[in-house]
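User: Good morning. I'm curious how flavin mononucleotide would be positioned relative to this chain. Could you predict the structure with it bound?
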Amino acid sequence: MDFSDVVRTTGAVRRFRADPVPDAVLARVFDNARFAPSGGNRQGWHVVLARSEPVRRALRELSFEGWTEYAAYVAADRVPFAPDDDGRWRRPPSDVDFSTPAPRNRFVEELERAPVIAVLAVDLRQLAVTDADLPRQSIVGGGSVYPFAQNILLSARNEDLGGVMTTFLCRREAQVKELLGLPRPYAVAAMLALGYPEHHPRRLTRRPVPDFVTFDHFEGEGLAGLPESR
Ligand SMILES: Cc1cc2nc3c(=O)[nH]c(=O)nc-3n(C[C@H](O)[C@H](O)[C@H](O)COP(=O)(O)O)c2cc1C
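Assistant: Good morning! Here's the predicted structure, ligand included:
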């Protein structure tokens, strides 16, 4: 595929056809994705592909628990798990009620039927976390694993697959680590569902360039976007 078509149509896909994804296709996806950057080129990632029914079921159940917590924030009109204005994460606000039953989430309910379920783990000892001691939520460490996750999604799109990265499982990291036998220094970064989509997204909703690229100052003049860009 043309590069621009790939990046502009790799949107979240949560509904898949039943067709299996051949291992040879998956191998190509990961073979391209592995060229992702990571701090110090440490490449601390590990992918566990969930194939067995009990493992898939457990991942669905744990994802549902994460979804329930996420939905509680949404119900309280809050950005789920967002740090405060000072950039620090604190306890959930008192108006977030985790006992509220979550609305249905068809993607999670049908997760076991996703042709590919890939849990992305990362060895924390391999992360160069240059902002670890700042008095705010650390963000740099994730930069050594999420480019790899996005590369998986882009490479999948190039194979006519679709998929989505989810982080619901991070809410139940201890159980996921036990389930998958992840060694102690590993963290759960994401779970990706992949498959041949019922529909590829055609047009993604994204902010235009002048909104987020400015000269000299945060409030500076925005870089002019391309007139033909939609
Ligand atoms: C760091 C990260 C975490 C995400 N976590 C979840 C998740 O837990 N569940 C989910 O359904 N989608 C998750 N997504 C997918 C986003 O919802 C999706 O990329 C975004 O809404 C854009 O959707 P679109 O490509 O359809 O426009 C996550 C995406 C990112 C980058």
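The helical segments are 3-9, 23-33, 53-75, 106-109, 146-158, 173-180, 209-212. The mean pLDDT is 95.
Let me know if you'd like a different ligand tried.
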